[in-house]
Specification:
The complex is a heterodimer of chains A (252) and B (477).
Chain A lengths: L1 H8 L2 H4 L2 H25 L15 H12 L14 H7 L34 H9 L1 H4 L9 H5 L7 H10 L6 H5 L1 H18 L9 H9 L4 H7 L24
Helix pairs in contact in A: 4-9, 4-12, 6-12, 11-12
Chain B lengths: L15 H29 L12 H33 L6 H21 L15 H23 L8 H21 L1 E5 L2 E4 L3 H19 L2 H15 L6 H15 L14 H13 L1 H14 L4 H4 L3 H24 L1 H7 L3 H31 L8 H31 L13 H7 L1 H30 L13
Antiparallel strand pairs in B: 1-2
Helix pairs in contact in B: 1-2, 1-3, 1-14, 1-17, 2-3, 2-7, 3-4, 4-5, 5-6, 5-7, 5-8, 7-14, 8-10, 9-12, 10-12, 12-14, 12-15, 14-15, 14-17, 15-16, 15-17
The chains are: A mainly alpha (252), B mainly alpha (477).
Chain lengths: 252, 477
């Protein structure tokens, strides 16, 4: 009995030496994080490159910032899991290589509303406009809030170049020319969306927030969809497609 | 092991700091819970968004989570740490200046959060929405706290560090590491920055942070508080010294690995998911070690649990700790997670830990501590029991609908008809099915909030009331 007690009492070494205890705690809490993070960043095969995945356009980048600002990730995921029920509902499951330009990631953790990872191209631009104006108009029973201010407020694109520079600093391949032309390119892309909306009798200007948001939403998952369209994987990410999953089927 | 210092000549303890933190915790806690209730009601009645950008669900929900975690729970931790460390170390906190910088700096952060989140100023990372200037402010305030804490340890009169202090050390160190790494970002303007990490890496870093914020802000410091305030309230020594050693070190080591269980079946590589799941399952052992050490500390005092509302709060808290630390590992099993992920089951799980463990142990601590800090009896002593029952019933009304609704939701998403097509292809069908559960959850939240408001009124009347009643008998000890 006495020897047993003594071995436990050796812990008293730590109990009287706070510095030693602090050092040991620091070492112990570092191990798990390092073992998980370093290989993920260092080993290339963890995030196989997909050639079709390219950076967001300046307008999409601005639209994405509106998505962040409104906290859309609180109710919508952007991560389709490799289950038949998910690929049938949302389309091809998500791959690591599709998110390499997502600073920050927007996978979300909750589906109060549906997943948006492959939303791009699913509905016309006018649908998104009407949906943000009043979600119930396009989706009866929806509990999503209305976003009328997106239809009125304008973007000044004053930060667009700085945003692209910040992204370039972190390795997003924007060329100097692309950055210099950022605002101009945004305007060109916005005008196409404005023209699409006009066909549905929606009048808006190129610099309203909704236009940028639509640009972003229409981009979601599109590169991946193109990469996986031939039934292939588009990458060396060799996870087998789940049995019975259609290539890009949705429930429309 | 010693539970209190040899009290020859009690030093002049600083009780003003824990008093201030306690008041801030209760005030901001009530506000944070009200915001949560409003967000819950928005899901049941979307008209409550009122077409106002500042209070739409997407901006309100981060305000709720940050308020209850950083303004309620963290302020409770600070109150308890400043009060108990002085007693356990037998010395006054090293620097009143740092204590004040810590208090006012932290409350400044809270106020800035309340201003910036509704304006849509956010980094877009769950539980870490603070933009970069606020992140830096948090880091500086935390450093002030850490210096003050370790300085107090350095000048301590009691050489031996009691188990509560071990848990505080782990908290101070780990939260700093998590916050700094996850907050790394490239600024664009004063109100805008982009996370340094992208995609899969950002997801891993974020959930390493997110899960360990639960581990090291809502678990380890509260276990420390349990180890101090439970034996005090029960007037019984801690059950097992060995158990406290084993569960402390294993909890600290194992917790940090568990983050990837938030990313099961995502594009995160399988090996990382497997690590996350394995360590999550292992976490049952140290978690239950803490629970058992808490519950068994009450051996011989169970008679008093029936009559003493403070012990009732603590026993229910420890029971919920045990329950949610079993539920969590079960949900981290990949096949269970395939069903539970993205559903309201997760929300229910979080709240059994948050309302059940963090909330109830905080209430128990406050009800024991406030009369001693202000040297007065509770102004409304009968309200303690009423608060206990409101909170307990409120938790049940919160988590049961979230279990049932969440599992129903998950099953509806994966249901096929006889043709092999989705049985509920229209997502809004699954949304509408949840409406009754959202209503019940809001009822549970209302009950819990009413209890919280009663605590607030009681504390205000006790702390600021005119006629100080005689202090409780044990206060001199």
């Amino acid at each position: 009995m006495s020897t047993k007690t003594e071995s436990w009492q050796r812990h008293g070494l730590f109990e009287n030496k706070p510095f030693l205890m602090t050092v040991l705690v620091t070492v112990l809490i570092s191990i798990g994080g390092l073992v998980e993070m370093i290989p993920l960043a260092a080993v290339k095969s963890n995030v196989p490159t997909i050639a079709e995945v390219t950076p967001y356009t300046p307008l999409e980048l601005e639209g994405r910032d509106i998505y962040l600002r409104e906290g859309c990730y609180n109710c919508h995921s952007q991560m389709i899991r490799p289950f038949r029920a998910e690929t049938m509902r949302y389309g091809e499951y998500s791959r690591a290589g599709e998110f390499v330009y997502d600073h920050p990631f927007q996978w979300g953790s909750k589906r109060t509303g549906p997943d948006l990872a492959r939303l791009g191209g699913k509905y016309p631009d006018a649908w998104h406009y009407r949906h943000m104006e009043n979600p119930v108009a396009t989706s009866a029973g929806s509990i999503m809030p209305r976003y009328p201010w997106l239809l009125e407020d304008t973007l000044d694109f004053a930060l667009t170049q700085r945003k692209m520079k910040a992204m370039a600093l972190m390795g997003v391949p924007y060329s100097k020319k692309q950055i210099a032309d950022g605002k101009h390119e945004a305007r060109q892309q916005a005008k196409e969306i404005v023209a699409n909306l006009a066909q549905a009798d929606i009048e808006t200007t190129w610099d309203t927030e909704i236009v940028a948001l639509i640009a972003y939403l229409q981009r979601l998952g599109v590169d991946g969809k193109r990469a996986f369209a031939d039934g292939g994987d588009g990458s060396s990410d060799a996870a087998p497609a789940p049995a019975g999953a259609p290539a890009g089927g949705t429930h429309e | 092991m010693s539970e209190s210092p040899p009290n020859q000549a009690p030093p002049d303890y600083d009780d003003a700091t824990p008093q201030k933190f306690l008041l801030a915790a209760v005030l901001f806690g009530a506000v944070g819970m009200l915001v949560g209730l409003w967000a819950a009601l928005e899901l049941a009645f979307p008209a409550l968004n009122f077409d106002l950008p500042w209070i739409t669900f997407g901006r309100l929900r981060p305000l709720h989570t940050s308020a209850v975690v950083f303004a309620f729970a963290a302020n409770i931790v600070f109150a308890g740490v400043y009060h108990s460390s002085q007693r356990l170390l037998g010395t006054r906190t090293a620097s009143d200046l740092l204590s004040n910088i810590h208090f006012w700096g932290w409350q400044l952060v809270v106020v800035l959060v309340v201003i910036t989140y509704p304006l849509g100023i956010t980094q877009g990372k769950e539980y870490a929405e603070l933009e970069w200037p606020l992140d830096i402010l948090v880091a500086l305030v935390w450093v002030a706290f850490a210096i003050n804490f370790f300085w107090t340890i350095a000048i301590r009169k009691v050489k031996h560090l009691y188990v509560a202090i071990w848990f505080y050390i782990a908290t101070v160190i780990t939260i700093a590491v998590l916050h700094i790494v996850n907050g790394l970002a490239v600024p664009v303007s004063m109100t805008k920055s982009y996370s340094l990490f992208a995609g899969v890496q950002d997801a891993l870093v974020q959930w390493w942070y997110g899960h360990n914020a639960v581990g090291f802000l809502l678990t380890t410091p509260f276990l420390g508080l349990m180890y101090y305030y439970l034996p005090k309230a029960a007037q019984r020594p801690v059950y097992s010294y060995r158990l406290s050693i084993v569960h402390f070190w294993s909890l600290v080591f194992i917790y940090i690995w568990a983050g990837p269980h938030h990313l099961h079946y995502t594009a995160l590589p399988d090996w990382a998911q497997t690590l996350g799941m394995t360590f999550s399952l292992m976490l049952i052992a140290p978690s239950w070690g803490g629970m058992l050490n808490g519950l068994l500390t009450l051996r011989g005092a169970w008679e008093r649990v029936r009559t003493d509302p403070i012990l009732k709060f603590m026993v229910v808290a420890i029971s919920f700790y045990g329950m949610s630390t079993l539920e969590g590992p079960i949900m981290s099993i990949r096949d269970v997670n395939a069903l539970s992920h993205y559903t309201d089951w997760t929300i229910g799980h979080v709240h059994s830990g948050a309302l059940g463990w963090v909330g109830m142990i905080s209430f128990g601590m406050i009800y024991w501590l406030a009369p001693r800090l202000w040297k007065r009896d509770w102004a409304l002593p009968k309200w303690l029991d009423a608060h206990f029952w409101l909170a307990t019933i409120g938790i049940v009304f919160y988590i049961v609908p979230m279990w049932v609704g969440g599992i129903a939701q998950g099953l509806m998403w994966r249901a096929f008809n006889e043709l092999g097509l989705l049985k509920y292809p229209d997502f809004t069908e699954t949304v509408m099915a949840l409406q009754p559960f959202y209503l019940l959850r809001a009822l549970g939240g209302t009950l819990y909030l009413v209890g919280m408001v009663m605590l607030g009124i009681n504390l205000a009347m006790t702390a600021f009331g005119r006629a100080p009643a005689p202090a409780p008998k044990e206060v001199a000890a």
